[in-house]
Design a protein that fits this description.
The protein is mainly α. It has eleven helices and no strands. The model has no long low-confidence stretch (mean pLDDT 93).
Length: 194
């Protein structure tokens, strides 16, 4: 008897989430299909019922962050684009550039964990990554004070500070320097909102 559509969708979701976590931890190249399926509690044979290859899964795992782990993270941080306004921007900056987010390797945003992997990935993976970036820019742009000049430019700068500050803080061994980089990016971004 074939599995139901609901079962198949839930299985696919488990595979995507397992892949997202493993890619965050190890990067694209150092993760195998076998490892992904094992983490999802499945056998390798089922992989190809859901994805044509690992690259397609990579693209979907990056894209899944926005409405999966990313939504959970935004909800916990009080980032609500529906309420809007500068407080939403500040909540996003404070949470994105937080020590908690920096230390959450499994749950971290793919824009922090995977920029080099995505730069060498398929066009589909780069489009998924770009979708996350565009969503962040949109959130900033549509919640900055309306009277703010150059809101699009400011939103792009805030996104670059948010992502860049976190990427740099993850790449240095000296924890005090990492904290200093993250805090400096956060304070500069928060000052730009006012």
């Amino acid at each position: 008897m074939p599995y139901s559509a609901v079962h198949k969708a839930e299985t696919r979701k488990r595979i995507v989430e397992a892949a997202r976590v493993l890619f965050n931890r190890n990067g694209f190249s150092d993760v195998t299909i076998d490892q992904i399926m094992e983490k999802a509690g499945l056998t390798r044979g089922g992989f190809y019922n859901h994805f044509p290859n690992k690259s397609a899964l990579f693209a979907e795992s990056v894209a899944s962050f926005l409405n999966g782990r990313g939504k959970d993270w935004r909800d916990q941080a009080g980032v609500d684009p529906e309420i809007g306004g500068p407080e939403t921007v500040r909540a996003m900056i404070n949470s994105y550039l937080s020590k908690l987010h920096a230390d959450d390797l499994d749950g971290q945003c793919p824009m922090i964990a995977l920029p080099s992997d995505v730069a060498r990935a398929t066009p589909e993976a780069r489009q998924s990554y770009e979708g996350l970036l565009r969503a962040m820019i949109w959130l900033y742009e549509n919640n900055l004070p309306e009277e703010a000049p150059d809101t699009r430019e400011k939103a792009c700068v805030l996104a670059a500070l948010s992502i860049g500050g976190m990427v740099l803080s993850r790449t240095v061994e000296d924890q005090s320097l990492a904290d200093e980089l993250r805090q400096a990016a956060k304070m500069f971004a928060l000052d730009a909102v006012a």
